[in-house]
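Limitations
The structure tokens in this dataset are predictions for the assembled complex, not deposited experimental models. Users should treat interface geometry with appropriate caution, especially where small molecules or nucleic acid strands are included. An illustrative entry is reproduced here so readers can see what is and is not provided.
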Amino acid sequence: MKSARILFNNDTLNVTVNDQDQVVTSEGKILEESTFTWLPPCDGKMFVLAINYADHAAELSFKAPDEPLVFLKNKNSLIGHDQLTFRPDNVDYMHYECELVVVIGKEAKNVSQEDAMDYVGGYTIGNDYAIRDYLENYYRPNLRVKSRDTCTPIGPYLVDAKDVKDPHNLMLRTYINGELKQEGNTKDLVFNIPHLIAYLSDIMTLTPGDMIFTGTPEGLADVKPGDVVVTEVEGVGVLKNTIISETDYLNTLNQ
Amino acid sequence: MFYYKQKESNTNVSKTASSRSDIALDNTFLPPTTGSVIGVALNNKQLAASLEVAFNEKPHVQPPKTPVLHIKTDNTHIGYGHSIKVPSDKGAVFAGPSLGIVIGKTATRVSADNALDHIQGFTLVNEVSLAETSFYRPAVKAKCRDTFCPIGPWTIDKSLIETPNQLAIKTLINGSVVHETNTDQLIYPVEEIVSYISSFMTLEEGDIIIAGTPERTPELEIKPGDSVTIEIEEIGSLTNPVEQE
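Predicted assembly:
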């Protein structure tokens, strides 16, 4: 089963998505894609893994860490499928990061790796944009790099955990304007999903809706206003996003 | 006006009072809001001075150019009177006395001059933390344990505070004053903090910003059995017992 949240006639609706990727309301009505806005399919804490693919670590000239390197984002950064993300004026390098997102399904505290998969509610796709110009060596990657308004597209929908047979063998791909730029596979995760759930639930209580962005493989590239960025995870869906300029973004705020 | 939340027969009830003497404090209090809680680390003049050498060495290389932010996740938030649970095997645990800035209306890209328009009022925060040996990587393990962020007991309306940037802050453990600081020690004052964060993160009504905590000196260590109180002039006091996790 695939579930989503949309904005339809100014109401937030919980809907399902059928095998033809059509949105179906709780009354069974199919909605045309142009009549609604996709919202993030989940709501909770946002954990993101840095350098959790060995090839990406090499790309950033880092040694893969000894324990998961986790940072947090705030919900201000979340947007749904097929929305707009702005690139600040006068920056040199803004890149996407295609990630499998694990969504917690039930409360988890001190969960063992053996039991961890029981706590997964589902999966979705996250695009964890970063603006490298703003990196500083304090709580790196700092919030100004990662937790920016519009900079975390997520969705389009949540796929039930039971419908993803092996989350540790899924292809990830990113396309800019149709051109393949990034490719990897979740089998190359440095810390796999059970490890991450056990690690986090040792520190704190996880609750349904919490999101674990599991990291991105190599293949980063700069994005510019006008670019259409598509991130996809095999069996989980295709997440589309369009880059706009800061000026255009400011105009949308004033509308 | 004072704004607060209490748990009454399993429902969370929002309340207001015109005087603090009308509020009977007990352990039914919840944090006064349910928004995101963003902390500003290293935002204390004495603390920054004590780290001057470390700031210029690896891995930091140079002092921070912008306010250093972190997130206190929802599992950390507790109300007045609820227990802070400290682990037995993670080293010392420290209180983190701070002014809490409560956002009153959506703030996107507000100037420091307009920041107060977006603030509902102020509260008290105890930003509990394990020791931090470095500020290079996000402090999730040190700062995001369950119960590590008492908030409350109330939000006091901004109209009742003359200037948020000159308020005495005391920390008491078991009734004795162990630490004193003042919001005049903030490197970035309240208005600049709100302006900076809102320059890239939209703040929503009910979000809380932890303005800045002092250096975690040994006097601020809390242990099971203690009762820790943060007191801020004009705002009130926040007391929580400490117990073993």
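Some entries come with short summary sentences. For this one: Chain B touches chain A through 36 residues (CB under 8 Å).
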